[in-house]
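Recap slide: Retrotransposon Copia-like N-terminal domain-containing protein, sequence and predicted structure.
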Amino acid sequence: MAEEMSLKIDDALDSGSNIKSEILPVQVTSIRLNKDNYLSWSAALEIGITCHGRLSYITGEKPAPSKTDPRWATWALEDSQVKVWIISSVSADIQPLILRKSTAYDMWTMLARMYGRKKRVLRTYQIKRSIYSLKQGDLSVAAFFAALKTKWEELDYHVNDDWHCGSDHALYWDKEWMDRTFIFLGGLRDEFESIRSQILNCDEVPGIEEVYARVESEEQRRQVMHIDTSQGSSPSAFVSRASGIGQRPARRCSHCNKSGHSVDFCWDLHPERRLVRGRPPSSRRSPSVPEPSQSSPSNVAKSKISSDQIKELQAYISRLSTTQEDASTSEGAKLAQALVATSDQ
């Protein structure tokens, strides 16, 4: 009874597969296999085949039944679908090498032998050399990390990972990911020195994913700060902020239509304000230079004092110094001395 039920289920699945085969695509990946991209090609093709429920045809888990088996026709149809996917995803010079293979599993294993582990030691050396020489340069943090991660995945594929002790295997990968974290931090630009120092100064360096998240957040923060700074220091923004500061509205007289004063201080209407309008010059203003036609009081005094008068003043001063006149006379003597000193100059 159980065998009959199982047979009915298999028949139903087979009939469903026949229906699905009519709408399956010819290609399941856009990557074409060449002599150098087996790792990325195999990963993409494996995902595409798995999406359509045909993974067991390339892993060998679903071998061909006997041709007398009722399920052989369904198996042959589905296996041919996988073969079409493989053939359509390799380059034209590789297609003749696998075209005559009887099953999809035979195609898959042959390509793996030819390109999967070809020259493993040489390829491992090339990958490691490119990893250690890779720097961020003009790349973003995300693009730089993606480039490193792609190379690490290819390196893991080529490295022989046969371990007899599970604990040693775990310790090895802990150390390996620590080294990869250092490679990522060391390849960053100098502008990330602060976040790099913060991470390396931790008692325990976080995992590679957390380190990447911190650095990527720092990159976004710097980009935002750069935009804000450039906008805040632009000439247009400075002018817009500075306009109107420290300026007084220009005054214009409604009587004479001249700027610089109002009608209340117009000299045409108020000539008396010519003498009282002005205020003493402040320390910030340069002292006014007298016009050539005007003479200072000291110059007038010089021109009116003769040599005889100077002698009389000197005699008067000498008498004052001996008699010790009162304070008012002393003040007069000081004035006379000033006049004499001015005359001597």
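The chain has 16 helices and no strands.
Residues 185 and 196 are 6 Å apart (CA to CA).
(End of recap.)
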